[in-house]
Amino acid sequence: MANIPPSTNKIESKVNGQFKRMKMLIKEPYLLALIIIIFLSLFVFSVYPIYQVFKITVINDEGIIDFSLIVETFSSSFFLKTLWNSIQLGIMSAIFGTIIGFIFAYAVTRTEMKGKKFFNLVALLPIISPPFVIALSVILLFGRNGIISNGLFGFEDSNVYGLRSLVFIQTLGFFPIAYLNLKGVLEAIDSSVEDAALNLGASRWKVFSTITLPLAVPGILSSLLLVFIKAIEDFGNPMVIAGEYQTLAVQAYLQITGMYDLRAGSFYAVALLLPSLTAYFIQKYWISKKSYVTVTGKPTQTREKINEKHIVMPLFIFCGLITGAVMLIYGTVLWGAFVKVWGVDNTLTFDNFKYTFTLGFDSVKNSLLLSALSTPITALLGMIIAFLIIRKQFIGKKIMEASSMLAFAVPGTVIGIGYILAFNQKPLLLTGTAMILIIAFTFRNITVGIEAGTNSLRQVDPSIEEASTNLGASSFTTFRKISLPLMKSALFSGLVYSFVRSMTSISAVIFLISVNWNLLTVTILSQVEDASLGAAAAYCIILIVIILIVIGLLEFFVNYLASSKRRNFR
Amino acid sequence: MTNTNSNINTHSVDVKLTNLLKVFPSHNGGDNFYAVDDIELDIKAGELVTLLGPSGCGKTTTLRMLAGFELPTSGSIHIGDENVTNVPPNKRNVAMVFQSYALFPHLSVFENIAYGLRINKVPKGDVIDRTYKVISLMHLEEFKDRLPSQLSGGQQQRVALARAIVTEPKVLLFDEPLSNLDAKLREYMRDELRKIQQRLGITSLYVTHDQTEAMAISDKVVIMNHGKIQQADSPINIYTKPNNHFVAGFMGKANFLHGVVKELKNNMAMINIFGKSVLIRINDKVKLTENGPVECVTRPEFWEFSDTGKFIGQVTRTIYLGNHVEYEIAIGDDTISMMDFEHFKHGIKQEGDQVTLHLKEECVSLLPTRKEYIKEGLA
Ligand SMILES: Nc1ncnc2c1ncn2[C@@H]1O[C@H](COP(=O)(O)OP(=O)(O)O)[C@@H](O)[C@H]1O
Ligand SMILES: [Mg+2]
C-alpha cells in the first residue's frame, strides 16, 4: 500500500501538487519572470484604470466615499433619458443587425446562391473601416446637400439627424459581426443532422425551423449581444449624426472635453460599462457554454446545398439589396473624396487629397506609426498569453485570463477616461505621450490575439510540444520553434485585427490624443464637424487604402516567414 | 537492415523506480485517485522492459513520470547513478516515442530528426552527419524533405523513432507506439524496433496493452493493474508461472479450475480436479494444506483429445479458425475452453459430441486462492 495513509493525503497531495508546480516554475526563472511581468502590466494597464473610473464616481472632493453624487446623477431625468436612448439604440440595432446577419450567413452556408464570394467580401468592408464612415456617407446622401434628399427629391432642409438614421447606420455597420459569428455557427452544425431530418421526410422549411434554427439559437443570442455591445459603446456615429438624440458615450465625452468635468463623464462611462460588461460576460460564459457546436477537429463532410429557385432567389435579392446599400455607402464616400464642394459644385478634383497631404498628413503618419508599433507587440503578447493559459500551470491563471479580457470587454470610453485618470501624474505620467496611445491600443486589442491563439493551440496535440521538451528544449525554445509557427494563422489574424482596430478606433483614443499626437480618426471626425465633408471623405479613403495595403503585406510577410522556416538545411 | 549505424554511440545505464506513487486529487471532493500505486522497478542497462496492462492501469502515467512530464507524488526515479526525480523534462536526456508520434507538422522529416541536436547546440556539421546517419539507419532517405503530413503511418513511426534515437538518449520510452498501425505493419515495425533497440543497446521502457507485442519484444514484462505491479518477470515465466489470477487471465486464455489438495509429496501435489487425480508441481508462492482448496490454471492448449484421457466431456461450441479449432467443452458443472491444432487428425467435433480429454499435467500452474491474494493486496 502507499506510504501515505489515505486519510491525510487528500489535502496534502493537492497542496503538494501546487507547491511542486511552483518549484518547477522556479527552475525556469525566465518563465516565472514573464508571468509576473504580464500580471503586473495587466494590472496597471487594464484593471487599475477601470478601478479609477469607479473610484472617482464614489469619492467626493474631500476624498470621502459618498454615494449621494451617484444617486443624484442617476436620478436626473436627463441622465435617465440618455441611458434609455443608448439601450433603445442598442436593442434595435442588435435585432436588425442579427436578422440581416443571419439571413446572410444562411444564404452563404446553405444555398447554391450565386455571387457568394462577392457578398462575403462586401460584408467585410464595414469591419475594416472606421464605423463613422457610414455616418459620413449618410450625410452625403441624405443631408442638407445630400444627392438623394436634395439632388433627387429637392428637399431643402432634410433632417438626417436622430434615432432612425442612427439605427440604420449601426445596423449596416455592425451586421457583419453577426454575419461572421453566425456563419461560423452554421458551418459548424454537423450536416448529417440536417440530412437525417431530410431523410426522415422533413421539408426544407421543416428542416430549417425544427433543426437549423434551434441549433443556431445560442449563436443568434450571442450575435444579439455582440451587436448590442458594439452599438451602445459606439462613439463615432452618434457623435456625427445623433443630433438631439443623446447617448452615453457621446455625453461622457462632452462632459469631459466640453465641461471639463471628469466626474460627470465618469458617471456616464460607468453607466455605459454596466450593460455592456454584463452582456459581454453573458455572451462569453453563459451562451458559449450552451452552444451545441462541438469542435471535433474532424473535417465535416461537404454539405448538399439548397438549390431550389424559390428559396435561393429571395435570398439572393435580399443579400443583393444589403450589399448594394453597403456599396452605395462606400461609393458615395469615394465619390465625395473627389468632388469639389459636395452638392454644390460637383466637378471632379484632387483638391481634397491635396489638402490632406499638405495640411493634415501628420495625423495619418501618427496613426500609421503608432498602430504599426503596437500591432506586433499586441499579437505576440496575445500568443504568449494564449500559450501560458492553455499549456502552463500556475497560480492565478484564471485571473490572468479574466484581466486580459477586461480592457476589451469594457467600452473604449471607459478605458479612455480611466487612462487620463490613472496616468496623469508621476510615476506614471503618460498623458500627452505617444506611449499612452500605444499602450491603449495594445491592451484594448490583446484579447483578439489571445482568443485566436487559444483556439488554434487547442487544436495542436500537446504531445507535439512535449516531444520538443523531451528532446531538450526549454519552454521558450518550444514556444518559439514549435508553438508559434503552428499558430501561424492565429498570429496573422491577431496582427490584422489589432492593426485594423488600432487604425479605426476612436472612442478610447479621443481622450488620449494631444497636440503632438493627433490621430487620423479624430481628424476625420473634426473635419465632419467643421462640415469639410470632402476632406473627411478623402481621409476615409486614405485610411481604408492603408488598411487594405497593410493586410496584404501582413499576409505576404506571415506566409514568407512560415515557408522560409520550413526550407531544408542541407 | 544494413549496418550503416557503425557509430551511433550509446552508453547503457540502468533505471530504478523506487516507491513511486502518483495520486491525482479528486475534483469533486471524492477519494483521491491512485493512478500509480507504490511501484518498484529495476531496468537493467540495455534491457527492454514492457509495461503491460488494461487501459487506465497507470502505464502512461508511469512513463510520463520517467520522462518528467508528471511529478511523482512520492518516491524516486534514478537513471544511472543520478536521482532525476525533480529534474525538469528537458534536462533528462530520455527520449520518448509518442503514441500519436507528435511529429512537428511544420518541419520537414530532416528537420524533425535534427531538432533535438540543434536544440542541444550540437555543431552544425555534426548535426548533418548524425541526422543522415539515423536517416539511413531508418531507411528514410527518399522522404527526408517531406512534411509529416505527406508520409504514411509507418513512415511517420520511423521518423518518430529516428527523432528519438538521434540524440543518443540514456533511456528510450515508448507509449503504445504501434497502436496506430495496421496489423501487418505493426508486426514488422515491432521487430524492427526491437532490432534497433538491441543494436544500440539503449535501456528502454515500452508501454502496450497488447500481450503478443509485449511477449515478442521484451526482456522483461511488467503486468500492471489498478496502478500496481502484479508481476515483473520474463515472458516465459509470466505465461507459464503467473503470480495470480489477474496475470493468468490477462495473458492469453485461461481455464481456472478449483481443486482440492489430496496429498503433498516432495515438490509435487496430488490434486483432485473434476473427481480425477492429477499430479502438479508445487510453486513456492502458494501455500498448500492437505484437503485445502487450490486454484489451477489450465491453458486451452494444455488439453488434448486422447482416447486414454481421464476426463470425459461434451462439446458445447465449436469455432473453426483455420490453423486450429476452438472448443468449449462441458466437464461436470464446469466449462473449459480448449484448442486443437491437429484437427486434420482428429476431425472436427460437433456440438453435442462426447469426447475424452487428456490434461498435460506438467504444464498446469497453481495460484494462491483469492482470499490469500486479496489479503496481500494484490488484487
Ligand atoms: N491528469 C490527470 N488527472 C486525473 N486523472 C488522471 C490524469 N491522468 C491520468 N489519470 C487517470 O489515471 C489513470 C491511469 O491513466 P494512464 O496512466 O493514462 O493509463 P494507461 O495505463 O491506460 O496508460 C486513468 O484512470 C486516468 O483516468
Ligand atoms: Mg496510455
Would you kindly provide a written description of the structure presented here, covering whatever features stand out?
- The complex is a heterodimer of chains A (570) and B (379).
- Chain A has helices at residues 9-26, 29-58, 68-75, 77-110, 116-128, 132-142, 147-152, 163-188, 191-199, 204-233, 236-241, 248-259, 262-290, 309-337, 351-358, 362-391, 397-409, 412-422, 434-458, 462-470, 475-486, 488-504, 520-529, 533-566, and strands at residues 339-341, 345-348, 424-425, 428-429.
- Chain A contains 24 helices and four strands.
- Chain A has a two-stranded antiparallel ribbon.
- With 570 residues, chain A is an all-alpha fold.
- In chain A, a hairpin with a 2-residue loop joins strand 3 (424-425) and strand 4.
- The N and C termini of chain A lie far apart (55 Å).
- Chain B has 379 residues and is an alpha+beta fold.
- Chain B has two domains: 15-245, P-loop containing nucleotide triphosphate hydrolases (Rossmann fold); 254-373, OB fold (Dihydrolipoamide Acetyltransferase, E2P) (Beta Barrel).
- Chain B has helices at 59-67, 109-119, 124-137, 153-165, 183-200, 211-217, 235-240, 245-250, 343-346, 370-375; strands at residues 15-24, 33-43, 48-52, 74-79, 82-83, 94-97, 171-175, 203-208, 220-225, 228-233, 255-265, 268-273, 276-281, 293-298, 303-305, 311-320, 325-331, 334-340, 354-359, 365-367.
- In chain B, helix 2 crosses helix 3 (124-137), helix 2 (109-119) packs parallel to helix 4 and helix 4 packs parallel to helix 5 (183-200).
- Chain B is globular.
- Mean pLDDT of chain B is 88; it is low at 1-6 and 373-379.
- The structure holds adenosine-5'-diphosphate and magnesium ion.
- Magnesium ion binds next to helix 1 of chain B.
